[in-house]
């Protein structure tokens, strides 16, 4: 397709009730030649989605009567799918939207092996989080103690790998699904994360990033700056 960026590999992690044919996924395919959009099979209530929270709650005996365990199981299965695709595709940038942003953060924190523990993540590159539903998801499914433990693991892993990642958040100030304060809290915990507040932006951010083609520009700029910092000789076409 004309005007496609040729040599930036984009891996997109979709939101909770979205999928591989969502508006952002299709936008990225239109504007970048190499795009990977793994099907995370996630939802809250849809039983036909393999990793839906309700399905994990009802069909896995260890999760019965435990939304926390079902939420963790669902998140871990999504992390496993994403990690496999990251290893195979080796993207230049990971773009995570809403729940996809929470999954991306979980990968950076090293969530692995269906356990809540510090782990290893070998990938390095740029990470773009669009209204990440991190606190939103944790508050819905985990108790306060586990929320704080997860956040501390994330902060520790990021502090120990400052040169491996360039992480940026774009969040609308009119987001009534995932409050902007969630991203403000995240950058207080991890100061190396950059936050850009989009005035008038809602949760979907389509009018702020898609309709004006701004998302393409943001991705190109972020990847260029990271590659220059790392001394990688590659310029997007």
Task: Walk me through the structure.
- This protein has helices at residues 23-31, 53-59, 67-89, 99-109, 134-141, 144-159, 180-189, 206-210, 214-230; strands spanning 5-13, 32-36, 93-97, 125-130, 165-172, 194-198.
- By secondary structure, the chain is an alpha/beta fold.
- The chain has a single domain (5-45, 81-230), classed as Rossmann fold, CATH 3.40.50.1820.
- Strand 3 (93-97), helix 4 (99-109) and strand 4 form a beta-alpha-beta unit.
- Helix 3 runs antiparallel to helix 5 (134-141).
- Residues 113-118 have low confidence and may be disordered.
List the helices and strands and how they pair.
Elements: E1 5-13, H1 23-31, E2 32-36, H2 53-59, H3 67-89, E3 93-97, H4 99-109, E4 125-130, H5 134-141, H6 144-159, E5 165-172, H7 180-189, E6 194-198, H8 206-210, H9 214-230
Parallel strand pairs: 1-2, 1-3, 3-4, 4-5, 5-6
Helix pairs in contact: 2-3, 3-4, 3-5, 4-6
Q: What portion of residues is helical?
A: 40-55%
Please tally the helical runs, counting DSSP H or I stretches of 4 or more residues.
9
**Largest sheet descriptor:** 6 strands, parallel
Instruction: Tell me the overall shape.
Output: globular
DSSP E strands, number: 6
Count of domains: 1
- Mind telling me which CATH architecture this is? 3-Layer(aba) Sandwich
> Which CATH C-level class is it?
Alpha Beta
Considering the protein shown, what is the CATH homologous superfamily? Alpha/Beta hydrolase fold, catalytic domain
What is the chain-wise order of helices and strands?
Answer: EHEHHEHEHHEHEHH
The CATH topology label is: Rossmann fold
- Widest sheet: strand ordering: 2-1-3-4-5-6
Poorly predicted runs are 113-118
Strand content: 15-25%
Distance linking N and C termini: 13 Å
Protein name: Serine hydrolase domain-containing protein
InterPro entries: AB_hydrolase_fold (IPR029058), FSH-like_dom (IPR005645)
Domain Serine hydrolase: 6-203
Pfam families: FSH1 (PF03959)
């Amino acid at each position: 397709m004309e005007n496609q960026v040729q040599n930036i590999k984009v891996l997109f992690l979709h939101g909770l009730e979205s999928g591989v044919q969502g508006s952002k996924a299709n936008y990225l395919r239109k504007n970048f030649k190499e795009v990977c959009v793994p099907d995370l099979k996630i939802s809250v209530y849809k039983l036909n989605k393999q990793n839906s929270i309700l399905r994990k709650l009802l069909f896995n005996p260890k999760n019965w009567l435990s939304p926390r365990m079902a939420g963790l199981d669902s998140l871990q299965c999504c992390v496993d799918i994403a990690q496999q695709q990251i290893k195979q595709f080796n993207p230049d940038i990971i773009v995570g939207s809403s729940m996809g942003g929470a999954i991306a953060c979980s990968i950076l924190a090293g969530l692995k092996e269906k356990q809540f523990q510090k782990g290893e993540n070998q990938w390095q590159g740029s990470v773009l989080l669009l209204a990440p539903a991190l606190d939103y998801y944790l508050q819905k499914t985990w108790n306060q103690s586990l929320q704080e433990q997860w956040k501390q693991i994330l902060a520790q892993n990021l502090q120990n790998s400052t040169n491996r990642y360039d992480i940026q958040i774009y969040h609308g100030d009119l987001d009534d699904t995932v409050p902007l304060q969630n991203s403000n809290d995240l950058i207080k915990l991890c100061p190396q994360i950059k936050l850009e507040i989009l005035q008038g932006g809602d949760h979907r951010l389509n009018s702020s990033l898609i309709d004006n083609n701004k998302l393409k520009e943001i991705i190109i700029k972020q990847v260029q700056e990271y590659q220059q910092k790392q001394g990688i000789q590659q310029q997007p076409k």
